[in-house]
Amino acid sequence: MQRIELPNSSRLLTPDFTFGVATAAFQVEGATEADGRLPSIWDHFCALEGRVKNGDSGMPACDHYHRWQEDLELIQGLGVDAYRLSIAWPRVMTEDGRANVRGLDFYKRLLDSLRERDITPFVTLYHWDLPQHLQERGGWVNRDTAYRFQEYADLVSRELGDRVHSYATLNEPWVSAILGHEVGIHAPGLEDARLARQAGHHLLLAHGLGMQTLRANAPDAQAGLVLNMGPNTPHSRRYDDRVAALVGEASMNHWFLEPVLEGRYPALYTRLYPEQAPQVLPGDMALISQPVDFVGINYYTRGVVSYDEESLVRNHPPGDVEVTDFGWEVYPQGLTDLLVDLNAQYRLPPLMVTENGMAGDDHLVEGEVHDEQRCRYLNSHLNAVHDAIEEGVDVRGYFAWSLMDNFEWAEGYSKRFGMVYIDYETQQRTLKDSARAFADFLWTRKAGR
Known about the structure:
By secondary structure, this protein is an alpha/beta fold. The protein has 15 helices and 13 strands. Helix content is 41%, strand content 15%. Helix 14 links the parallel strand 10 and strand 11 (395-401). Helix 3 (64-78) runs parallel beside helix 5 (101-116), helix 8 runs antiparallel to helix 9 and helix 14 packs across helix 15 (433-447).
């Protein structure tokens, strides 16, 4: 079994660096109609023919809603410091804005049990599961949804109180906005670039409104947001390919980070695509750019791009390189490059690597799953974080994605990101070699303190 090894001097080995695993509510909980849970946009999207591979849906997922105690045993056994989870908005709030007590009690029991096990809870408020009744009133294209999010954030932060150490308002708003409203492969399945950027602005507005509420209700908790990012590499040394790489990064990385840190959208993008500019009302950017305690970075791979006369940016599939089962290039240097580059461009708050992992072609054979590629992936990317810290980046934590195989959005159950193998027919959990390697690394780290 491949070991995870870091330099003895690495700050990742010190007690103040946080290691964790992560999941998201819709991907693991199942129980989509239990205890008053309302339909979400992903329940609706899954029911549309041809939208999700094999017609898969959020049922049964990993049945985490009923098996959470077993799953917390797994988490504790890994030796992690923290667990990152999301709250299902449709599970905790009724259509008229009241608390759904049964849904909230589930999270209270889970969070209390984490505390008893000395595992720190990192909670994401929005991981893509918008209540369907809000989508029917326009969803994120409707500015009012940002204010409904604030009401939801108020409810959750009041009800969960000091059980939560750290709140992220949003997970990957680029995915919600662009994949959901421009590309159309995620819920709600729209294909309009202008509406996508308007949805993106309203998501960021929701972040700002949510930050206000979190500061008021949970002043001792950390509060920030989580963005997916990756560097773009020019396909050639031609100047126009290099420009395309910058435009691609402005579109994905900076369009969602620059408003939060500097109160404006990237000038490079807005000059090139003025027709996509969202409507911004007075006071919006001040709300969006409130100070945050951290920014979470989700990293999986890089992009390789060239100039395209029509769209400006053309994405190239990986060449003769190592790829994951998703077809994504394994490129740990991109994580170091991304972190160092962001640190050079912005005055950053502390960073957390809130997701990092890979889909593998994993199979259960005689009770074991030998995912050697994932072991190497974790090792190389943890060393990439170490290298970024050595170059002066303030990274405070790392969360492996994911604790267990789960519903992988438009890919259904066809892709396996977990360190724990899930048999979806029996719901049996099996530690993969990567889980054993991660646990061995973490327990050895704790023993060396």
